[in-house]
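Question thread 4412

I'm putting together a teaching handout and wanted feedback from people who do this every day. The idea is simple: show students a protein as raw sequence, then show them the structure tokens that encode its fold, then repeat with a second protein so they can compare. Below is the first pair exactly as I plan to print it.
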Amino acid sequence: MINNEKNSDRVKKLGTYLLYGGALIFAIALIWISTSSDKETKSNSANTSTQVSTPKTAGVQPVKPAEKIQVYEFHSTNRCYSCITMGQYIKATLEESFQAELKSGKIDFREINVDLPENKEVATKFKATGTSLFINSIIDGQDNIKEDTQIWRLVTNEKSFSDYLSAKLKDIIGEKASAQADDKDVEKKDIVFYFSDDCPECTNIEKYLMENDVKNKIGFEEKNIDKNEVDAQQMAEDAMYCNVDEESFGAPFLWAEGKCYTGEQDIINFFDDSLKGLK
């Protein structure tokens, strides 16, 4: 009887040991599974992060610098004040900031008279018919000819002119342009509306501009030619650039990115089209 009781106690103790041992093994197994799962999750997260971030830099191609730049100012035999001034400003800017490029031939600057027979070929290539500035960025031997009409807006301010041209050429060459920040302010001035005090059409245009909130949507300048002789002279030179007959133009007059608009309806149509382009 005693032996039976002892055997029973032994069985109970063994059962208890097995129960606690099994629980311990189960707990260890859970911890191991949890740890492995956490490592796998972190690994997958890292892989996912890598896969997501990779496309951000894929396909980004830097702009290739030009191996040569042609800066050609075309003009006719009879040169206006702005045309002469522009040539002087370009030359001064190049000699001050791009002397090495001028000597090496990387930058080629010329003032070309389109009226001379010997310049016919180059004028035809650049499609230059009158006073104009063209910049040709030669990359891998290929021409990239572009007319710069913005430069004309800066002939009354040599520093702004020089900063703008320097920034543009440095960008083409591939250098960081210190005057880059000025470009945004300059571009807003590429549209100029000339008006006068005693001008019914000007009044109608002003009314249109106000009713359509144009001034808060399109960056442009307004100049009263009755109050500033310099502005009146600038309007005349803009008209000459567009080959508008001096005797047939007057306020209202609009200069917009190298193009000229005269008369109330043409100017309103320009702003109408510009507003539609914003939508």
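The second pair follows. I'd like the answer to focus on this one:
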Amino acid sequence: MKVMLLGLRGFPDVQGGVEKHVQELSQLLVKQGVEVNVIGRSSYQPVLPDQTWRGVKFTSIWAPQKKSLEAIVHTFLGVCYAALQRPDILHIHAVGPSLMVPLARVFGLRVVVTHHGPDYDRQKWGKFARFVLELGERWGMQYSNARIVISTVISQLIKSKYGLDSHLIPNGVQLPRLLTSTVQLESFGLVPGQYILLVSRLVPEKRHIDLVKAFSQSGLQGWKLAIVGASDHPDDYLRELQNLVSNTPDVVMTGYQSGDGLRELYSQAGLFVLPSSHEGLPIAMLEALSFGLPVLASDIPANLEVGLDAKHYFPLGDIQALAGKLKEFSRHQLTTDERNATRQWVLEKYDWEKIAASTLQVYSNVAK
């Protein structure tokens, strides 16, 4: 079976939840005998030997360097390319790129769409962009041959808005190596077990500013806050965050991290926090759990769906409540047994091997 994946920036190690999802999924599909071709955006896609990575083939196509046009123009070009290549399945990710599903069907392609979350709810978009994204959701759901959603929340949304059923296939994790090295930590002045970690793109809906203010209010002695990630398109939010961090003691911004550097930061954090207002099913939160970290998250539906005990959640935007939770969680040092139990729990619930098998079954049903 030949499958083409479209709607992401690229990978490996390109920042973003969709990018991480496709990176993990595609290599496992290859192991199951699928010929996978990923259409990446040339400005993000790393240059790879023979344009392959772990058996996954890549095709880089140009996209404009403007956030309002980048995804839709690239997807249009990608669909045209797919029409020439004739894959058995064109798998489009996210609701913005799904605006091109009707065109793909006109070209006679069989299309699967994965809905990663209602992107029109993100704070960065204006009215027209929200309209286009909602239209992409509508057309993607109505005109695709099959619909995949990554959470029950999204499944219910699609059922209520469009009366359509979907395949629930969540994001996943693989158990990572726990690193004891401190090279990366020392470069940022971090002490093992004594820092709070947030890993995400630097965009408004991740609510970094809430966390910085809560950390400042908590008055934790000997602790630091590490914000890991970068902004694809520097804007007013990034400048506001950088200004706040520069005026808040013991907060560091590490920039984008990947590979062993990121694994080291995850392995030795004392606490992971996700204060976001918008998620599909948060991969960064699942990854933190795969390292056995204690987690605090805002009480939005997507975060609640992960299924942690109530004590791990705080009201969205409630800085005082978050500050109290930071103090509470900082007092408890997890044992090795507790960390191992957390790792095993998240692996059993969100296993990429099972996710890849379920996705391949959807492909097989559509390709019949």
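Top answer:
Good format. For the second protein you could add a caption like this: Residues 43 and 258 are 18 Å apart (CA to CA). The first strand starts at residue 2 and ends at 6.
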